[in-house]
Each structure stands twice: as structure tokens, then as C-alpha cells.
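User: C-alpha cells in, sequence out, please.
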């Protein structure tokens, strides 16, 4: 067994000790996120994750870098998506990576001091430099995974917010209302178009009231999207009525040369509902 294999064996023998020492050394008064949890299940899982980390890291002394990361990236990916770690500031997680890195440098010193033969200083330096490099790469890979996870979650939240901000509300049977409120930028207008068409198809809507009384301003692209929505609804066989168009919105539409000729319009939602007690299919 060469010295690299012996070092790996030494580290493997101390993995459980490293995990317990690491967790015991956490400053519980300043710790946040997963490191501050008092839930026994969370704590146990955290220790298991740390122990699994050691089982991977020990192999850096007997495997080439590519082979090592081919396997280790599974652990990085799993931690980056772990709910408890997602809720923990990245700076705190990086801090713990650095503390564990210090553990490994100390372990190398411990191995050298207990080894029966002299070990060349150059080899010791190689080991320490290798550990530092592997941890640096691990931190960068974790940050990339964490950013991707955060980006996916942010998009999911935005999609949910957009969907909730443009709900198709069923009034009766196949009649529904789409109340639009707040600022509508190009991105939200596109989302409204897609979401409305999908909801109308799923709910088998035949007539839709689109109320714009809560919309203060729209830009050129948004005005186009609203008219595209009406055209697309017509293609689906859904008749629509616009209500609550503010003067600013109407002025923008006129400046764009958009025609209201084939669109049913009422000054407000109350008037629209009262005039269409019985839905007239034109």
C-alpha cells in the first residue's frame, strides 16, 4: 500500500470523528439555516450528509480529478437541491466548506506525525495543495448548482404569481371573467395570453369578460398582446367582451391603429354583466 492509499485509509478511519467534531464545533449562537436547526431529524440528516461527503473526499488521493468529480458531483447536486440547504445562505455553506477543508489539512498533519516513516515535505505540500484545489473546485461547482436551483425556483414562483395574477374566474357554466390588475409589461402580457388560452380551453369557456379597469398603463407591445389574446380566443370559439378600458389605454390603442370594430366593449364590468344576462352568440 503506497502512501496515498495509506492516507486515504487513515481518513476513512476518522470520517465519523470528523463529522462529530465538525458538528460540535459549530457556533450554535451564530449559526443560521440548516446549521442552526434544533430538529433532531434535520440534525441527523445534516450529519449523514457530512459523513457521505467524507466518504467521497477520501478518494481524491487515489483517483484522478475527472474520475473523482464524475462521482462526487452527485453529492454536490443533491446538497444544492436539498430544501434545508436551499433555505441556508450560500455564504454560510461556503464557510462550512472552508472549515471542513481546515479539518483535512489538520488530518494530513496528524497522519504525518503518526506515520512510522518520514514523509518528504514535498509530498505533504502536494497533499495540502490537492485538498485546497479540490475544495475550491467543489465550492465553485456547488455555487453553480445552487444558482441554477435558485433560478429554477424563482421562475416557478414567477410563473405561479403570473398565473394567479391572471385567473380565469368562472361566473356560471361556460361564462368566465378575467380581471387584470396592476402594471402589465411585455413579459406579463405574454404570460396572460398563454395562461388565459390554456385556462379557457381546460374549463371549456365559451364567453369571457376581460376587465381592464385595474390596468393603468400599457405600452405598445402590451396593447398588441391584448388584441392578440382576443383574436386567439375567437379562434378557440370563445367570445369576449372588454370592459373598464381607461382613457390612457384607449389612446395607446388608437395611436397604434388598433381597431375595436369587431370587439364588444362596455364602459365597466357591471354594465357588461347587466347587458349580457343572457349570453348572445353573435
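Assistant: Sequence out:
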Amino acid at each position: 500500500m503506497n502512501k496515498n492509499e495509506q492516507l486515504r485509509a487513515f481518513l476513512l478511519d476518522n470520517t465519523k470523528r470528523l463529522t462529530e467534531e465538525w458538528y460540535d464545533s459549530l457556533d450554535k449562537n451564530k449559526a443560521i439555516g440548516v446549521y442552526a436547526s434544533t430538529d433532531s431529524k434535520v440534525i441527523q440528516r445534516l450529519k449523514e450528509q457530512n459523513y457521505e461527503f467524507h466518504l467521497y473526499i477520501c478518494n481524491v488521493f487515489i483517483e484522478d480529478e475527472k474520475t473523482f468529480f464524475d462521482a462526487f458531483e452527485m453529492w454536490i447536486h443533491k446538497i444544492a437541491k436539498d430544501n434545508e440547504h436551499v433555505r441556508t445562505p450560500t455564504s454560510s455553506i461556503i464557510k462550512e466548506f472552508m472549515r471542513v477543508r481546515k479539518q483535512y489539512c489538520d488530518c494530513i498533519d496528524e497522519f504525518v506525525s503518526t506515520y512510522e516513516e518520514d514523509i518528504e515535505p514535498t509530498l505533504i505540500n502536494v497533499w495540502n495543495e490537492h485538498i485546497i484545489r479540490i475544495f475550491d473546485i467543489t465550492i465553485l461547482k456547488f455555487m453553480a448548482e445552487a444558482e441554477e436551483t435558485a433560478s429554477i425556483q424563482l421562475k416557478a414562483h414567477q410563473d405561479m404569481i403570473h398565473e394567479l395574477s391572471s385567473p380565469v374566474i368562472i361566473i356560471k357554466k361556460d361564462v368566465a371573467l378575467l380581471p387584470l390588475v396592476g402594471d402589465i409589461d411585455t413579459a406579463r402580457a405574454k404570460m396572460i395570453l398563454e395562461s388565459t388560452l390554456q385556462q379557457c380551453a381546460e374549463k371549456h369557456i365559451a364567453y369571457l369578460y376581460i376587465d381592464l379597469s385595474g390596468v393603468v398603463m400599457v405600452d405598445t407591445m402590451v396593447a398588441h398582446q391584448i388584441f392578440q389574446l382576443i383574436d386567439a380566443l375567437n379562434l378557440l370559439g370563445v367570445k369576449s367582451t372588454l370592459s373598464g378600458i381607461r382613457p390612457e389605454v384607449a389612446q395607446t390603442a388608437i395611436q397604434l391603429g388598433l381597431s375595436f370594430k369587431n370587439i364588444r366593449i362596455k364602459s365597466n364590468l357591471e354594465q357588461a354583466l347587466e347587458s349580457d344576462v343572457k349570453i348572445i352568440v353573435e
